Amino acid sequence: MKNGWLLLGVVVLVVVPLWWKRGAEFAGADSQAEGVVAEVAPQYTPWIASWWEPPSGEIESLLFCTQAALGAGVLGYCLGRRNRRVTADKPC
């Protein structure tokens, strides 16, 4: 039952903000920062350019999610190994 309440809480936390701000555009921090820099210093030129630009925003999101999933997997694996090592040292 506890897991059901946790799942319901997660769904509420995801759905309510999206329902509350229907039609809003959620821009990333990079694009917002780019707009502020253009206002503050219009003569600014970037130091370095990307060597590859994803063909679409969906591909960019996919790559970002893949990177996050791999990072979470590595972190979870390392924490699991550490936890197993700590609990293996303790007698039952």
Task: Please report the distance between the alpha carbons of the first and last residues.
Answer: 29 Å
Biggest sheet details: none
**Structural classification:** mainly alpha
How would you spell out the order of helices and strands?
Answer: HHH
What proportion strand?
under 5%
What is the strand and helix layout of this fold?
Layout: H1 2-20, H2 29-40, H3 57-89
Mind explaining what this structure looks like?
The chain has 92 residues and is an all-alpha fold. The chain is 70% helix and 0% strand. It is built from three helices and no strands. The protein has helices spanning 2-20, 29-40, 57-89. The protein is extended. The two termini are 29 Å apart. The mean pLDDT is 85.
Which key terms come to mind for this protein?
70% helix; 92 residues; extended; 3 helices; mainly alpha
Structure summary:
With 92 residues, the chain is mainly alpha-helical. Helices cover 70% and strands 0% of the residues.
